TrEMBL record:
Record lineage: Bacteria, Pseudomonadati, Bacteroidota, Sphingobacteriia, Sphingobacteriales
The protein, known as: Putative ABC transport system permease protein
Coiled-coil zones: none
Superkingdom of origin: Bacteria
MacB-like periplasmic core domain span: 25-254
Length: 415
């Protein structure tokens, strides 16, 4: 109880001093407010960017492997011309993988033809992404439908003139109308719309389905060369639930090396890409960004801390005679020390709270104006309290110690 009473009295002295010197208190708060706002703002911006990029990566599927010509990550001493000489995945590769794989839930063959114009009567949409896929594509790629349905197995096998279109394509061709059942012109052919993808919005990796036009592969093979490298052919393999992606990758590597008839000494003539590659790249990239943001924030906080320390020295100088009176009346050294330490910590906490409030306000304004969701999680609030308290203790310890060691007689006479 005595300790609690001493702490409460120290708080009262600290608040009284802050209220008596409002302008000085305000100026002291500016430095620490800017410091906390900077470091929390930088970390929140980085977290937001990281979250958006990770959401884009997650669409690829954590247990899906993409067999492609080019790797998503270059490393080692592998010369670029060796990548150039690799063959693109073929339908034969697809059939062999589908036939031999044991750890896969689904295998699909996909090609892409970008920047195409889609027409419906007098309306048109430019910049559409044409995708031609085998039937199991719906099992290897994550998407939702806003209306209609996916291809039936019979439609995929027969190469029926049917298509699924993205939300933006549907809005551009059929504003205020239902797209399902309409006949559109794609690659010079007439196709019936049987489904519309749910709106996804533009993501950080450009994997949105909003401008996608999905065709059965057996229909597209009559219009384009589905094995041509210019259409980026790839084989998507989604593992069975519970099968580690490393185990699936190992099996796929064995199958593909066998299909390509590679000797044990030959390098792979294909790339096995997976979302963990991108996640690892994000981790390394954002580790650097976080470090840079932390350094900037620390320097900002140090500036605020020096400001607090300077104000505390001034405060000790101004209240020297009061300290002498308190000590002459029996105040212990630790009481004087605690009084000034609490004043410094309170100043820093007030500045930190204001800085955090500004970050939340900016996040709210950005959400209203630009529809950007800034992530400010609870860990940043905890970080604010820890940093503010630490800066307050560090900034106030020397002035507080000097105040506690003053001689009461000399202190009283200083007036």
């Amino acid at each position: 109880m005595i300790v609690l009473k001493l702490i409460l009295e120290s708080f009262n002295f600290a608040f009284s001093s802050l209220k008596e010197n409002k302008l000085r208190t305000f100026l002291s708060l500016i430095g620490i407010t800017i410091g906390i706002m900077t470091i929390i703002g930088v970390f929140s911006a980085v977290d937001t960017l990281r979250n958006n990029l990770q959401s884009s990566v997650d669409k690829l599927g954590s247990n899906t492997i993409y067999i492609q010509k080019w790797p998503w990550e270059f490393g080692g001493d592998y010369q670029w011309w060796k990548y150039m000489n690799r063959p693109s995945p073929t339908l034969r590769d697809f059939e062999k993988v589908k036939e031999r794989i044991t750890n896969a839930e689904a295998v699909s063959y996909n090609v892409w033809a970008g920047n195409r114009t889609i027409k419906y009567k007098s309306s048109s949409v430019e910049g559409a992404q044409i995708s031609a896929v085998t039937h199991d594509f719906y099992m290897t790629w994550n998407f939702d439908l806003d209306d209609g349905r996916y291809f039936s197995e019979a439609e995929s096998k027969a190469g029926s003139p049917v298509t699924l279109i993205g939300y933006s394509v549907a809005e551009g061709l059929f504003p205020g109308q239902r797209a399902v059942g309409k006949v559109i012109n794609v690659l010079g052919r007439k196709l019936v719309v049987i489904g519309v993808f749910a709106e996804e919005g533009e993501d950080m990796l450009g994997t949105s389905a909003d401008k996608t036009v999905l065709l059965p592969l057996n229909f597209a093979r009559n219009v384009i060369d589905i094995q041509s490298e210019q259409y980026g052919p790839e084989i998507s393999v989604r593992g069975k639930p519970g099968v580690p992606v490393e185990e699936l990758e190992s099996e796929l590597r064995g199958i593909m090396r066998s299909v390509h008839r590679l000797s044990p000494l030959q390098d792979d003539s294909f790339a096995l890409n997976k979302s963990t590659i991108l996640t690892a790249q994000l981790d390394s990239m954002f580790a650097v960004v976080n470090l840079a943001g932390g350094v900037i924030g620390i320097f900002s906080i140090l500036v605020g801390g020096f400001g607090i320390a300077n104000i505390m020295f001034v405060s000790v100088k101004e209240r020297t005679n009061i300290i002498g009176i308190q000590k002459s009346l029996g105040a212990k050294n630790y009481f004087i020390l605690l009084q000034f330490l609490i004043e410094a910590v309170v100043l820093c906490l007030m500045g930190g709270l204001i800085g955090l409030a500004i970050v939340y306000l900016l996040a709210f304004v950005l959400h209203l104006v630009a529809d950007v969701d800034i992530i400010v999680d609870i860990s940043k609030v905890v970080l604010m309290f820890i940093l503010s308290t630490a800066i307050g203790l560090i900034s106030g310890i020397i002035p507080a110690f000097m105040a506690s060691r003053l001689d009461p007689v000399e202190a009283i006479r200083s007036k």
